[in-house]
Design brief:
heterodimer, A: alpha/beta, five-stranded parallel β-sheet, three-stranded antiparallel β-sheet, globular, B: alpha/beta, Rossmann fold, four-stranded parallel β-sheet, 11 helices
């Protein structure tokens, strides 16, 4: 399985993204990070840590589970329901600039669900999208504002993101299925 | 998951944990400014209640609405049942309108099973006679787990009318499965023969049953089901089995007091206990919505057979 990003590259990408975020958003007071479960959450926490070091500012960070908003949930009555985990957004998102964080951007359907979910929590001033990997093949008109790495893939491949917090190692690899 | 939830025995131990974990996530939805998710949009759920109910029916209805299902309440007082329609006929007629789920409460044990056999819709038992009330047991387990972080190894004492109680039966099945030490107590007329076979201990003296308990669960004296001389008088029952502050003091210092409602104050439980610091009775009601959301969500998926 070819490794396309190792621990060092992941960490550099996140540092660069954190700098881009600070550059593009004047007034860090309005910023808040929301990670999409599962792997968007540790990525959001890491970005918050870098922004704390570089920008000397504590950005509130939350976790969003989008399962209940999925568009494929009740379409096929086959097999068990996906497991739901907790959404934890312990701050008001009203008038905030929300940085929505996920590991891989693919069809865009997860992000569509996340936007629907997020908007029910309030009316943010803006929502920007941060992804570690953009693998192409969009099915919806969605584009990331900050990308760690663009990785062209074929539909038969799958992109696996491993993070220390969840998988014990930092690595992005491509699998042939 | 099986097609229907009629009994705790329809769930595997893993599925019980899945329901409780899912309920944990569902509870957060109730704390949002907009308490609604689009998950069951386009699903129709019929609440068919043949017995009076405030808590359970309201709880199911709120759970259904928070998941965006279309809900329909059939209260028997305003339905064709009064014109002599049988349960099976009512069910077939409702079924003909193609709902996705039917939540049923009925005074006869096995009513849910009857519906389950004749309906393609998924059936949730919201209490059938003296048989089972699975969602109540699940919300009780959820409440216990929240306070004690576990269920295995806890001493759970259940006191009251064991004979007529569907809440007891579902709770015994669930709590023993999860490894709790369940002790029951009540007047001999209320102790079903052979209850020990369910893996519970019977303690005729309530003080003994309550001693060292982590959880005390009180059952209602169901005056609508007492057709005979089960107890000499309500006052005597309170003296012998009622949960008073003095009895609560025999349990562990961090005991929690539960009651499925509706309470008979001064019959099975003293007001000072029901409203006291150990009582989690209103938390049970609040948790009921989250647990029912979890059950509705999980049942709406595919079945093992698919």
């Amino acid at each position: 399985m070819p490794v396309v990003l190792d621990a060092d590259r992941i960490s550099r990408s996140l540092t660069r993204i954190a700098h881009e975020i600070l550059e593009r958003n004047r007034g860090v007071d309005e910023l808040a990070l929301v990670g999409i479960r599962t792997r968007g959450v540790p990525l959001a926490r890491r970005l918050a840590a870098i922004i704390r070091d570089v920008g000397r500012h504590e950005v509130p960070t939350g976790a969003l589970d989008i399962t209940l908003y999925r568009d494929d949930l009740m379409r096929t009555a086959v097999g068990a329901q996906p497991v739901i985990r907790k959404t934890e957004i312990p701050f008001s998102i009203d008038d905030k600039r929300i940085l929505l964080v996920d590991d891989v951007l693919y069809t865009g359907r997860t992000i569509r669900a996340a936007l629907d979910a997020l908007i029910e929590f309030g009316r943010p001033k803006a929502i920007q999208l941060v992804v570690l990997v953009d693998r192409g093949h969009r099915e919806l008109p969605i584009k990331a504002d900050y990308v760690g790495k663009n990785i062209p893939t074929s539909l038969s491949q799958s992109v696996q993101v491993h993070l220390i917090e969840i998988d014990g190692r930092d690595e992005v690899e491509i699998q042939e299925s | 998951m099986k097609k229907d939830l009629l009994s705790i025995d329809d769930l595997t131990t893993d599925e019980i944990h899945l329901v409780l974990d899912t309920a944990e996530a569902m509870r957060e939805i109730g704390q949002r400014p907009i308490k609604k998710v689009p998950t069951l949009r386009g699903k129709t759920i019929v609440n068919l209640f043949y017995e009076p109910s405030t808590r359970t029916r309201t709880s199911f209805e709120i759970a259904e609405k928070r998941l965006s299902a279309d809900t329909l309440n059939i209260a028997v007082a305003t339905s064709s049942v009064l014109k002599g329609e049988t349960l099976a006929d009512t069910a077939l007629n409702i079924e003909a309108m193609a709902p996705d789920m039917i939540v049923v409460r009925h005074a006869s044990s096995g009513a849910g099973h009857l519906l389950s056999r004749i309906c393609r819709s998924r059936v949730i038992n919201a209490g059938d006679g003296m048989h089972e009330h699975p969602t109540q047991a699940l919300l009780d387990a959820f409440t216990i787990r929240e306070h004690k972080q576990r269920i295995a190894g806890l001493k759970v004492t259940i006191v009251g009318d064991l004979l007529h109680s569907r809440v007891l039966r579902s709770n015994v099945l669930l709590l023993t499965r999860l490894g709790a030490d369940v002790c029951v107590s009540g007047p001999p007329t209320f102790v079903p023969a052979g209850i020990e076979r369910f893996g519970v201990r019977v303690s005729p003296r309530v003080d003994e049953a309550v001693a060292g308990a982590d959880v005390i669960m009180m059952l209602r004296i169901q005056q609508e089901r007492l057709h005979g001389a089960f107890i000499p008088s309500l006052r005597e029952y309170f003296t012998t089995f009622g949960m008073t502050a003095a009895r609560v003091a025999l349990a562990k210092p961090d005991v929690i007091i539960m009651h499925p409602g509706p309470m008979n104050r001064g019959v099975e439980i003293a007001s000072e206990v029901a409203d006291g610091p150990y009582s989690v009775i209103l938390e049970q009601v609040a948790n009921g919505v989250a647990v029912r959301m979890a059950v509705l969500y999980l049942l709406a998926g595919g079945t093992e057979a698919d």
